[in-house]
Amino acid sequence: MCLENEEKILGYSNNDVSNIDMVLRKYSYLGKLNKKQMSQVAAQLRLNVSNSRGHMKIYEFYNSFKLPDEYDLSLLLVAGILLGQGTSDLKAKLLWEIYDVDGTEEMGKDVLYTILQDICNIALDRIAFLVSDSPFCSEYKVKSYVSNCNAVRSRIIDKVLFLLLGSLSSIKKARFITRISKILDGNMLTSKGIRKIMHEEYCKVPYPDTHKIMHSNSGSHYNIIEARNVIPEEEEFSDAE
């Protein structure tokens, strides 16, 4: 529950995803937002974008969206989809519109892979930036939980790509919306759902007693280097979810 509680503090869950999308786009310029524009977004959506008592890492979360001095609109839009309120169909439609930059209404495997990497990165790595040690949260447990989930990230992404594409090389908008809305009960469209899918996959598959994860400089790609045979006790990490 730790990650779920921390992400609620941001305030996105009190907003409809359509409104989040509209407001972010309204105040952005050339795909970015500066600090003033982000403050305007926060005021209109009633988001928490500053550290507060008991929540000292909100700045760190938002800093992960900087490029390098302004905020990346696309990734903030994706975060809004994962954290905001809305039907799976609506979330899928908005997600498509972020990545279909040329308006072709068709996407290849490479773009789909980028979408899946981005949503997993936000649900796991970036949300984890919010956590600090407290009576209710342990940074160590959260890092272990995120590391375990990332150990199966590639496996999950490959499965979802297959469910989206099958034997096709590209996908049309209508098929994408229908399929990703139904895949794994729509859990790929919420941050909590993505973490649930990955943790269940990790607990299901034997992994090494010491697994090492290689992290790229971008913070968005993990590879399993070594793995053998250990399944974590669910109780140990349940508080981190």
Q: How would you portray this structure in words?
A:
The protein has one domain (2-238). The chain has twelve helices and six strands. The protein has helices at residues 2-9, 17-27, 35-45, 58-63, 73-83, 88-99, 109-128, 139-151, 153-165, 173-182, 191-204, 234-238; strands spanning 32-33, 71-72, 106-108, 170-172, 212-215, 222-226.
Q: Strand portion, in percent?
A: 5-15%
* Rough outline: globular
Task: List the secondary-structure elements in sequence, H or E.
Answer: HHEHHEHHEHHHEHHEEH
Strand order of the largest sheet: 1-2
Number of domains as seen in the coordinates: 1
Number of helical segments with 4 or more residues: 12
Question: Quick check: average pLDDT?
Answer: 86
Model regions low in confidence, pLDDT < 50 over at least 5 residues: 208-238
Q: Based on DSSP secondary structure assignment, what is the total number of beta strands?
A: 6
| Helix content range | 55-70%
Main pleated sheet: 2 strands, antiparallel
Radius of gyration from the CA trace?
Answer: 18 Å
What attributes does this structure have?
single chain; 241 residues; mainly alpha; two-stranded antiparallel sheet; 6 strands
Task: Kindly summarize this structure in a few lines.
This protein has one domain (about 1-240).
Layout of secondary structure:
Blueprint: H1 2-9, H2 17-27, E1 32-33, H3 35-45, H4 58-63, E2 71-72, H5 73-83, H6 88-99, E3 106-108, H7 109-128, H8 139-151, H9 153-165, E4 170-172, H10 173-182, H11 191-204, E5 212-215, E6 222-226, H12 234-238
Antiparallel strand pairs: 1-2, 3-4, 5-6
Helix pairs in contact: 2-3, 2-5, 5-6, 5-7, 6-10, 7-9, 7-11, 8-11
